What we know:
Strand order of the largest sheet: 1-7-6-5-4-3-2
Strand content: 35-45%
Number of domains: 1
CATH class: Alpha Beta
Largest sheet: 7 strands, antiparallel
Shape: globular
Structural class: alpha+beta
Number of strands: 7
Helix content: 10-25%
Amino acid sequence: MHxxxxxxxxxxxxxxxxxxxxxxxxxxxxxxxxxxxxxxxxGILLSTLASGFQTLEKDNVAVAGPLExxxxxxxxxxxxxxxxxxxxxxxxVKIIPGLSFSYVEVNLRxxxxxxxxxxxxxxxxxxxxxxxxxxxRKFEEVDGSTKVSESIYGQCPAFQKLIVQLTxxxxxxxxxxxxHTLFE
Length: 184
């Protein structure tokens, strides 16, 4: 994906990850847990990198066009529109494998916005400066189960790109491989 007309022109993704898992539950159940605010905290805290989750305000946001092409984290609230849940949490990332003192704690603020009619959720986070992440999560019913597909598009400073790309791809796979535990 490239920056769309609704995404800020300064957003130039330089790290990416795609992954998919199938969960042996109906789409309506999986979407409620992984696509809305009902399972937001539990879903984020499945990641071994995440801690200190806090739910912030919830509102609605008007979206022109498909949600997956939108940028709504900083958009003004609208009385009608798609639900948007704000949140914050911390990620602790190891930057140099093998060194116990090489962990960096990153404070993240984000939003989860969802479109139940299209079975799409948009997760956007930032560290308040140099890193911006957009995660598009799509849900599809397949033989009574639900396929969850995620695409991550992120932007970080060039000097961080290698470590961020490696960490993102590995953490993304590990995180999604735990999604099934939310339904056991």
